[in-house]
Amino acid sequence: xxxxxxxxxxxxxxxxxxxxxxxxxxxxxxxxxxxxxxxxxxxxxxxxxxxxxxxxxxxxxxxxxxxxxxxxxxxxxxxxxx
Length: 82
Fold this sequence. Notes:
Structural class: mainly alpha
Radius of gyration: 14 Å
Order of helices and strands: HHH
């Protein structure tokens, strides 16, 4: 099962720290990040557009296009330096 959430970049490190125990238990298999600022609560996107975004993400994951934990850590560090 895959969940998509949108968090403020300033809280990314806190989220990863909170999820790490779940990874250690084997409950979380993968954590992906995107620098795209897509807000799923943004009413300017239709249901079809939101569904297309989710489907694209699922296809990316199935095709092996996702970030390792190390890559996520590097992204977070780059966000902090901006």
